[in-house]
């Protein structure tokens, strides 16, 4: 997970969360980041390294830029995501939608760039550009 400078809030998980996932926590939209140091002999692809467990302290990024994979399953950017897309998040399921969110969805950010040299492709979502969601006067 690549993160750019942004405001962070300390939280405690009320359910298991994937490190780097876009979530809604206490009516705040952001990206969850594992704060606990993993053990020296813990494999980086195990749940101990990738999951934030219920009751575990974590950091919620509420501004800044954050990468998400594209079309790689649950919690990823939708297929066809391109730079300039507005990304919305469902506050209950954390499902992401591009450009037109369903009723009740919240604004997550704007896709600043897409890196197609990686597998899966990734998009950089900038949460500092929420002005793009405002209606045109």
Can you give keywords for this protein?
137 residues, four-stranded antiparallel β-sheet, 1 helix, globular
What overall geometry do the principal axes of the alpha carbons give?
Answer: globular
Unreliable stretches, pLDDT < 50, 5 or more residues? none
Number of strands: 11
Helix count equals 1
Could you tell me how far the N terminus lies from the C terminus, measured between alpha carbons in angstroms?
36 Å
Total separate domains = 1
Average pLDDT over all residues: 90
Strand % is 35-45%
Description:
This protein is mainly β. The strands form 3 sheets. The chain has a 5-stranded antiparallel beta sheet with strand order 7-11-10-8-9, with no helix packed on it. Strands 1-6-4-3 form a 4-stranded antiparallel beta sheet, with no helix packed on it. A hairpin with a 6-residue loop joins strand 8 (about 85-90) and strand 9. It has one domain (about 10-135). Helix content is about 5%, strand content about 40%.
SSE topology sketch:
Elements: E1 8-12, E2 17-18, E3 22-25, E4 28-34, H1 47-50, E5 51-52, E6 57-61, E7 65-69, E8 86-89, E9 96-98, E10 106-115, E11 122-126
Antiparallel strand pairs: 1-6, 2-5, 3-4, 4-6, 7-11, 8-9, 8-10, 10-11
Structure summary:
The chain has 137 residues and is mostly beta strands.
